[in-house]
């Protein structure tokens, strides 16, 4: 029996648009609701969300139950962090702050079993292998792992061609907020310089034959990114959606009551 098929990786490889939601509330219930809402994927944000490894596991279980692909963003490009989330059953990995091809290779090395990488051999006790109920997991897992690296600095853009050309990197995800800050324009995601840098980066990623991704909270941007050939699109997050809805409800109620 082989490792489970990574349907998100397969869809992206075919050039199909895949939309998703960021999960930062560390709630399995929210993950369960989001997973059943109609998104292709949800991202468990271990970098900025208040997560521990148990909370990540709970969200993976909730998303699996809803048939929604899970992506896990690890806090940093550290081998032990990558190993833990993969052993929990994550197949789609987002690694932040990758500025060089050497860092991209390190992420791939941590995510794949030998000989392509050096992922630790703990599958026999891991959820990823259904606790050793998938006998061929180690032999087949590499093909189902999707390694995504984030380019979110001027250094990353300088090295983007080499990063995108790294064997084993499936996708390059542009981090617009950190990129704008590194360009000296924090919070100005719509600044012409930032927009031009992002558009150029998407074109270079696509030219390398890799999947391009980004997150935006502006619905006016969705079609534009699609037309640029981007297919891994984050369209919101659990925290801002909930906060906006609750504030709107409170304000509307007060207005109606005078």
**Structural class by helix and strand composition:** alpha/beta
DSSP strand content: 15-25%
CATH domain topology: TIM Barrel
Strand order of the largest sheet: 1-2-3-4-5-6-7-8
Low-confidence segments = none
Mean pLDDT: 97
Q: Let me know the number of strands.
A: 8
Based on CA atoms alone, the radius of gyration comes out at 18 Å
Helix content range: 40-55%
- The arrangement of helices and strands along the chain is HEHEHEHEHHEHHEHHEHEH
CATH 2nd-level architecture? Alpha-Beta Barrel
CATH first level: Alpha Beta
Tally of DSSP helical segments? 12
Major sheet description: 8 strands, parallel, barrel
Which outline best applies?
Answer: globular
- How far is the first residue's CA from the last residue's CA? 64 Å
State the fourth-level CATH superfamily: Phosphoenolpyruvate-binding domains
Number of domains: 1
Can you offer a commentary on this structure?
The protein is 43% helix and 16% strand. Strands 1-2-3-4-5-6-7-8 form an eight-stranded parallel β-barrel, surrounded by seven helices. The protein has a single domain (7-257), classed as TIM Barrel. It starts with 6 loop residues before the first helix and ends with a helix. With 258 residues, the chain is α/β, with parallel strands linked by helices. It has helices at residues 7-13, 28-35, 53-66, 79-87, 101-111, 137-140, 154-158, 160-164, 176-182, 192-207, 222-227, 238-257, and strands at 18-23, 41-45, 69-73, 92-95, 146-151, 171-174, 211-215, 232-237. Helix 4 (79-87) runs parallel beside helix 5. The model has no long low-confidence stretch (mean pLDDT 97). The protein is globular, with a radius of gyration of 18 Å.
